[in-house]
Every structure is written in C-alpha cells, then in structure tokens.
Amino acid sequence: MSIICSSCKKEISDLTDDYRIILNKEYCSHCATEIIMEKAEQVILTTTNHIDGFLVEEYVDIVTSEVVLGTGFFSEFSGDFADFFGLRSTGFERKLQDAKKAAFMQLKAQAVIRGGNAVIGVDFDYTEFSGNRVGVIANGTIVHLVPATEEYVSKHSKRIL
C-alpha cells in the first residue's frame, strides 16, 4: 500500500520513508518540514504561565529541547584574546544566541507537531561541555490557546473556575 503526500501529491512508496501526520493528513519529509516551519513561526513562546487575552483550552504536553554547538578554534582563540583584554567575547555570544534560537525553534516545531499553538512557562539554561561545546536546554508546556471572548468564558465558565 502506497501513501500519497497531501501536499505535493507524490507517492511515498516505501512505508519506511520518513513521513509525518499533521492535522490528520500525511506528508512526505520535505513537505512536512516546510509546513511545520511555516506554522512554527506563529507559535507563541512565553516565560509566563498565561498570555493576556487568551485562555488555555488544553494542556498538550511538556516539551524539552537540547542544542549543543561546538565553539570552534577561532571562537576559542578570540574568546581567550577578549578575556585577556577584558573585552566581550562576541564569538561565544553569537554561538549562545544561535543555540538559543535553535532550541526555541525546536520548541515551536514540537508544539505544531503535537497540536499546540503556544509554549508557556519556557525556561532555558546554558551549559558547557568538554571539547569546546556549549549547550542550551529549553523546556516549557505546550498548550492550545483560545481568545478569551465573553462568549467562550460564559460557555465554559464552570471549567474555567
């Protein structure tokens, strides 16, 4: 039995091929990645446990993202140089920023895959590994938010209280 990608309509001939089900439709790896990344741009990340004007309709899951990047010889050398002169180590700062962005994008992608539209309570930590590697660990709770309209609040008031 073959599977047809819901987006590009190409046959996914082998069931061992990587394909994903998003919103109850099956996609090849390429199309799934594009759809997830497009939808991930709309996912809200916040360190708070609520977002003004929205209510949590469903707590979906806890999500964690780990990103480890090598700093490389040049970053290490420039970091030592900057440290010696009391300057900022912009090479390391860029590596940490890149790792943080990648971890946040992974949180957003996991929210899309699991049916959420926000990740609340986001927390992130930095760590250093041997071999000139730095890591960022981010976690939070995937939720599905709905606008806090008067109609929604009155309809679901027992559940909200």
Automatic annotation (TrEMBL):
Gene source species: Proteiniclasticum ruminis
Protein name according to UniProt: Uncharacterized conserved protein YbjQ, UPF0145 family
Domain of life: Bacteria
Stated family: Belongs to the UPF0145 family.
Pfam families, alphabetized: YbjQ_1
InterPro entries assigned: UPF0145_dom_sf, UPF0145_YbjQ-like
Signal peptide: none
